[in-house]
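Supplementary notes for students who missed Thursday's class. We covered one full example, reproduced here. Read the sequence, then the structure, then the short commentary at the end.
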Amino acid sequence: MLDEALENVVAGKSSLLTCERDGSLAWAWRRAQRPSEAARSWQITETRSLDECAQALAATPNAVALVEFTTEHHDATFDFLMEAETRFPSTLVLVAAERRLAAWAPLLREAGAAWVATEREGFAQLIAMAERHASLHPQPAVGLREAVWAALPWESKHP
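Structure (token representation):
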């Protein structure tokens, strides 16, 4: 009975990876979801660097990645977008930027971003795209035991 309950804990969750400085994107995502979308179970993983985000994508290649764009790290962000397009072709990469950086949107899309939102209030379009991506790439139901074994940093065969 307990095993069955544990198996259902991680069944069918879609993965959202945020790459941001302060957690505001993850907060805005949760806040912007409509009640009809709240039924979808999102496993939200917050990362603080592009390298950390790439490592998380390697573990969840069908994920949705939401990347914060800043001018301080624009070169690294463009490199990340171009690499993600080839290294993680099943990942949907979305970019959020401040409104003053809207002129960068065409370049970000050309580099590989599926969509660029230039205001926190514009998350409805991001969420709609993520929901569509999640429906096209459903996450298999994975039991807690299997999820833990898959997350280990070494190859092993579990019992």
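Commentary. Strands lie at 14-19, 42-47, 64-69, 92-97, 115-117. The longest strand covers residues 14-19. If anything here is unclear, bring it to office hours.
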